[in-house]
Specification:
This protein has twelve helices and twelve strands. The protein has 337 residues and is of the alpha+beta class. It folds into two domains: 119 residues, Aminopeptidase (3-Layer(aba) Sandwich); 199 residues, Gcn5-related N-acetyltransferase (GNAT) (Aminopeptidase, 3-Layer(aba) Sandwich), CATH 3.40.630.30. A seven-stranded mixed β-sheet has the order 7-8-9-10-11-6-12, sandwiched between helices. Strands 1-2-3-4-5 form a five-stranded mixed β-sheet. The longest helix has 19 residues. It is globular, with a radius of gyration of 20 Å.
């Protein structure tokens, strides 16, 4: 069995190098996420395994009866074979059990074709409804040497036309990203530097997201919970906010992405429905700029996020509520994973 121990000071200082930056890493295994959840009553356990991997486990005590549950958000980080992943999960679960934890939930992003589902069932785990919004996602592989012209040519014709029309209309994309500030190279071609702090931009984006959710019949939690996490993730360099603005400098759409595990991942997208007829290409331009940024950073993929239907984990088809969004993402050449 793999040895599990609590991380020491040096490992805590380099925590994101163990759980966020390696291939397959995830922002929800980060130190920033641990601190954010600790502020809302969770107890983070930063664990280091004998095989050199690390896992963030979040504990929540049961009220009145004692004991508690633990959640490994998008962990353990995928690395090695499916058998190795299950061995890590089993070791962490046993360690948590020794601390009085009764139930452990894990939602590591591991392809089903690896054989992981059967192995994890054999280890005693059972499926539950998703904790995060999506089990599946749309992915666009890039890799080193990705060619921008070839990728643009692979986008559906109607989507390319909307992108070019948005550019002709002098729509701009503001990039809120401390990574750009740290590099000292400016926002990059196709982007504008922000003229304000990120906080008001995140508040505006939450308003757009709330309205978008109402149109698509899903809800979001209170503003403070979302924006406080976004601010923390942005300050840590894990989050980018791209904001589309008209030629008159009116913000009409936004896209939030995570930077982790050698990829950029779409987290939320939203737009102002009232401006769609006049500016139908706003979200198309934002996704194209995200793709360009992923290529410039040498990312292995652009993750366009999921469009799962609650209770039905199949790819949306005609007639499904999320089919339009799925078609929008497929238009960029993305495939269902």
């Amino acid at each position: 069995m793999i040895e599990v121990r609590v991380a020491g000071p040096r490992e805590l200082d380099a925590w994101d190098d163990l759980t966020v930056h390696p291939g397959g890493g995830h922002v929800l295994q980060s130190m920033a996420w641990a601190r954010h959840r600790a502020a809302t009553g969770w107890r983070p356990h930063h664990l280091v395994l004998g095989d050199g991997s690390a896992v963030l486990a979040l504990e929540r005590p049961w009220p009145w009866i004692g004991g508690g549950s633990a959640y490994l958000p998008r962990g353990p980080v995928p690395a090695g074979s499916a058998e190795a992943m299950v061995a890590r999960l089993d070791a962490v679960t046993r360690w948590l059990g020794a601390q009085g934890i009764d139930v452990v939930a894990s939602d590591a992003e591991i392809p089903a074709v690896s054989g992981y589902p059967a192995l994890v069932r054999d280890a005693g785990f059972r499926p539950i409804e998703e904790i995060q919004p999506s089990r599946h996602r749309y992915t666009l592989p890039l890799g080193h040497g990705a060619d921008e012209d070839a990728l643009f040519g692979g986008i559906a014709k109607s989507t390319r036309q909307r992108i070019r029309a948005a550019e002709r209309d002098q729509m701009s994309v503001v990039r809120h990203d401390v990574g750009a500030d740290a590099a000292g190279a400016g926002p990059g071609e196709g982007f504008r530097a922000p003229a304000e702090p990120v906080e008001p931009a995140l508040d505006r984006f939450y308003d757009l997201l709330l309205a978008t959710g109402e149109r698509r019949h899903f809800g979001f939690g209170p503003r403070a919970g979302f924006t406080s996490w976004w601010r923390a993730a942005h300050a840590a360099g894990h989050l980018l906010l791209l904001e589309a603005r008209t030629a008159a400098d009116e913000p009409i759409a936004g896209l939030i992405l995570y930077r982790h595990g050698g990829r950029l991942s779409t987290v939320h997208s939203a737009d102002d429905a009232a401006t769609r007829s006049a500016h139908p290409g706003a979200l198309h331009l934002l996704r194209w700029r995200a793709l360009q940024q992923a290529m410039r950073e040498g990312c292995a993929e652009l993750d366009l996020g999921g469009v799962d239907l609650p209770g039905a984990r199949h790819e949306p088809v005609a007639g499904d509520r999320m089919h339009g969004l799925a078609e929008h993402k497929r238009a960029f050449g993305a495939t269902w994973l």
